[in-house]
Amino acid sequence: MIVVLKQNPNRHQLESLIAWLQEKGIIIHTSIGEAHTILGLVGDTSQLDIDLIAALDIVEDVKRVQEPYKNANRKFHPEDTVVQVGNTQIGGGNLTLMAGPCSVESEEQVVAIAKAVKASGATMLRGGAFKPRTSPYSFQGLGATGLEYLKVARQETGLPIVTELMDLSQLPLFKDVDVIQIGARNMQNFDLLKAVGHQDKPVMIKRGMSATYEEWLMSAEYVMAGGNENVILCERGIRTFESYTRNTLDLACIPVLRKLTHLPIIIDPSHATGKSWLVDPLAMGAVATGADGLLIEVHNDPAHALCDGPQSLKPEVFDGLAKKLLKLHDFMKTVEE
Amino acid sequence: MIVVLKQNPNRHQLESLIAWLQEKGIIIHTSIGEAHTILGLVGDTSQLDIDLIAALDIVEDVKRVQEPYKNANRKFHPEDTVVQVGNTQIGGGNLTLMAGPCSVESEEQVVAIAKAVKASGATMLRGGAFKPRTSPYSFQGLGATGLEYLKVARQETGLPIVTELMDLSQLPLFKDVDVIQIGARNMQNFDLLKAVGHQDKPVMIKRGMSATYEEWLMSAEYVMAGGNENVILCERGIRTFESYTRNTLDLACIPVLRKLTHLPIIIDPSHATGKSWLVDPLAMGAVATGADGLLIEVHNDPAHALCDGPQSLKPEVFDGLAKKLLKLHDFMKTVEE
Amino acid sequence: MIVVLKQNPNRHQLESLIAWLQEKGIIIHTSIGEAHTILGLVGDTSQLDIDLIAALDIVEDVKRVQEPYKNANRKFHPEDTVVQVGNTQIGGGNLTLMAGPCSVESEEQVVAIAKAVKASGATMLRGGAFKPRTSPYSFQGLGATGLEYLKVARQETGLPIVTELMDLSQLPLFKDVDVIQIGARNMQNFDLLKAVGHQDKPVMIKRGMSATYEEWLMSAEYVMAGGNENVILCERGIRTFESYTRNTLDLACIPVLRKLTHLPIIIDPSHATGKSWLVDPLAMGAVATGADGLLIEVHNDPAHALCDGPQSLKPEVFDGLAKKLLKLHDFMKTVEE
Amino acid sequence: MIVVLKQNPNRHQLESLIAWLQEKGIIIHTSIGEAHTILGLVGDTSQLDIDLIAALDIVEDVKRVQEPYKNANRKFHPEDTVVQVGNTQIGGGNLTLMAGPCSVESEEQVVAIAKAVKASGATMLRGGAFKPRTSPYSFQGLGATGLEYLKVARQETGLPIVTELMDLSQLPLFKDVDVIQIGARNMQNFDLLKAVGHQDKPVMIKRGMSATYEEWLMSAEYVMAGGNENVILCERGIRTFESYTRNTLDLACIPVLRKLTHLPIIIDPSHATGKSWLVDPLAMGAVATGADGLLIEVHNDPAHALCDGPQSLKPEVFDGLAKKLLKLHDFMKTVEE
């Protein structure tokens, strides 16, 4: 951490700051220039509150050199994390296809889709039981009943299930779920993150609509600080001024996160674009960029989906796409030695 | 609502759509052009799920003409909502000054600040007991103890208190709070919104970091749909590419919301800018633009604040600012007839 | 185009509007609802000034149904445009690799790089002679001399050259250039667009830092309206709040533009990310998403590049990447029937 | 400037870097930590190309401590710049009201508006002769004829004129204009900036749609580096995801720029919002926040304006607003001692 002091800092305040930092085991290198004095802080600076230091009268600016996250940081954990879910592994060179309906609507629907996507190569079933909807007048999901239908579909197909938890009060209902999804709108619901950090199921954290990589990784850090190391990151587009697509899918997150963290990275082209015809090319792009997996909406009757219909593929379209994705994943192994 | 159909829509599907809309009491005006057929839907379209219609194979685009919110909509509620809190009123031509520390740190601290800001003209005390912090390693607030200190400060000064609720499980602790604040990161925590909609305390909803006006009003609608009409909106800056200020304060929200809704509008220049020296000019700007009040951080020792120090004013600085703000508010009444 | 009228519009003004529209050959369908009257305008609405109509006292809102661009619109030109440049074709199923230094620094440098990238499979040479630099104190490019060095490199390798034109006063210098590049900062320099529209060389338009697809296509329309049909679009990232990468590369633009326009689409991962280690994965992602080509910075000594060094690949790294890109492009043909 | 080195930097490269910096008169303070070695560079670092240093293999990150602009920097020019235009002064505690039509349409129109706005208190006349329009099919302005009409209006009223220059080839036509405006789309048209820096008329630079404060000041620096010190900055809103308003007006720029630079700051609420009913409250907010002036569109018949009509005020509305603005400006002097 680098602390840039104002010109002619109050000597007494400077000594207090130095003493306080030394107390925390920080070593300080001072560099005195004409215009500025700069303190280089060396040691475990992730414990220092950058805002607190920036608040001091004598400080002009504070800049981090080290990342504020530790458990999620590849520097301290060089090996890729591979998350085991039932018989499938997320990360470690696998391509995980998570597919299923946006909303669980009925047992028949979710079982039929689960069978179809499994036949096409999906290794996990996704489906929403609790749905975050912008309008209180929109369908809010089947709730606990929806979770039951998902479990029936799992029993029929063997596919592990991933579904969104919206509030920590629902946690008891999720004890039989395979992967807990934290939605984009809850990425900084810190009480929820703490709660899922204190249980042992894998957690998939979607990137917030305007979250930076660092904030996203800090949300992972919340979960991991609670003891739960099985965290998956899921990019679903960020908000920009372009409104033709619902959000702007940021595929650069794949290589960037690969460098910053050891956690697996899943891409959701369905929510990112909001248009089903964009799912195919962007899913292919995500695999070529190095994604560990994809989260894709599949619906047997998009026209009657109770939510988010325009971004859902029909099972036969997903079938063609899944085959291409798996072939591309194999191809990529041949060119990336 | 306007539905633009694709060229040569399937006749059977079109008839189904029309029948379904008519069932919901919607009247349909059809306009057939060379390139497009357009359906004009008339009636209560706020109950229609726009995504569901857009999902249909025959539909190219759907555009809303009416707003999707009703309770929060000025068209259906032309009079300004005035929220009564203790002896003070928010909205209706008053200027409400909510001031206090970012975090409650001790009884002495919050009582001292409460007395100071009351003497300067503040009519409400703000202070965080539960703190949303980006890092799990940062101070998370005093929690329930912090709420107790706020109540002591209220008892000593008579100032009603506003403080942030982060999770619905904490709701029982808030029964003696005057106004419940929903933070920016929880603006779309829909379970939390429903929960505060089913209790009777006023709720102040901060705008999400990248929320549109419509999404913000839909969050108000969630609370109001539960029966709680006492909703206050608080702008705290939106995220842009400009990083000199923490966020970009959007003062245009004041006249825009004044037109769209009847709810009072509070501006928070402290969080929006993240720098204490920007609070004064932007608070003045907010009053001249027509804000119903301000939320301002005041700290008796910014250098030792446990969080968000750089944006806090010292009580003596707040005193000067409060006097200017009240004078400006009086002046504005003389020029706006 | 749909015109939503205010409630109880002034009858005289409405009649004037209708007469004016009819004069322009527009057919009007009127749909009268309880809250709103809606006019559906049918005909060539691209000639109507949407702002002018929105300005009318009786109008509440105007929404376009048809795109405002014609020459660039795939609806009116269903076949892909293939731009012929020397012996190479851009678009039409080819993968064009444009490679070279950010800035032309010397004849030796640009010739050496040109030879290297040609050997690796590049089909065009890029290089900046006139450089848009944020600071007046930064190197501004070699100018006319740089253009001469590029021509020497072309003579030595046969690679056609693409280079940026910054001002229309420089146009005479560009008469021996193969493709004129319009930089992101000049995407809405309308005089420059008109000028290159009135000459016959192909023009590659980079997307502005915060331009929408529609604005970008309108810039292409400016060039095409002047009679020059040979326009290439180049995505180089848009500005978002994420600052780890210089910009956010929007690969969704590829399938979206493929639908909206017939013009070829090139991706520039070097400028988009600003980091050389991100070029490889994003270039692969771009090809899998369907790009017609890539614009990649290659430098023989990145450490001494006079500008934009951090994003340049060394020739040997480019060599490995180019081979992978061409293999991936072949692979994609086998899976996309 | 702070240079953070990678772990175990190549010794030879480090020595080269240090030698190169010392050659440029930079003094270097080295701080060696466990994880990172940090170089603190002291001296005139504005001449250093930050990208060049960041490109070096041994460098992990470079951070500026000093601003990259000098002529525009308040640190090197503590006094406010006051720009003299005819009999009026911009900056230095004055409130400059620049008013007039978006587009010059006819001599009668612009003379009538000029007379009206002068009577209301405007001190400068604005009006577009060359118009940057997104569509090649929209009205592009009257050009040279429009400039003539503006001069007639100046003769009739004595109001100095400010109007936009779109291309440096038009510069000879502007020799009789009082203030040259550089539009938002040309903020980084560096050849244009250089050209207006080499002539002696005041230049008003509008902020680019997604420009940071620093980039905006670097554009001012381009003009000032050419010898022209009379630069005025004009905020006209930045692009965000909120689309209800055309752009998001960033009033925080006023106090921020006041600190960073000595140049006067004008606010344009008309273009920023795109809606005439938002001009009044935001203009008032701008004055209370400390703006040096306002740029306001006034049209005698908004319904027939050839461009940008929805944001223009009628003269009688401007009259009421101008009176309020001047009263508020006087009031502000009484409260800001």
From TrEMBL, chains A, B, C, D:
Catalytic activity, EC: 2.5.1.54
Q: Does the keyword Transferase apply?
A: yes
| Keyword GTP-binding attached | no
Gene Ontology biological-process entries:
aromatic amino acid family biosynthetic process
Q: Which InterPro entries match?
A: Aldolase_TIM (IPR013785), Class-I_DAHP_synthase (IPR052899), DAHP1/KDSA (IPR006218), DAHP_snth_FXD (IPR041071), DAHP_syn_2 (IPR006268)
What keywords does the record list, in alphabetical order?
A: Transferase
Q: Gene3D superfamilies, per this entry?
A: Aldolase class I, Phospho-2-dehydro-3-deoxyheptonate aldolase, domain 1
- Put simply, this protein is called 3-deoxy-7-phosphoheptulonate synthase
Say which species the protein is native to.
Answer: Dysosmobacter welbionis
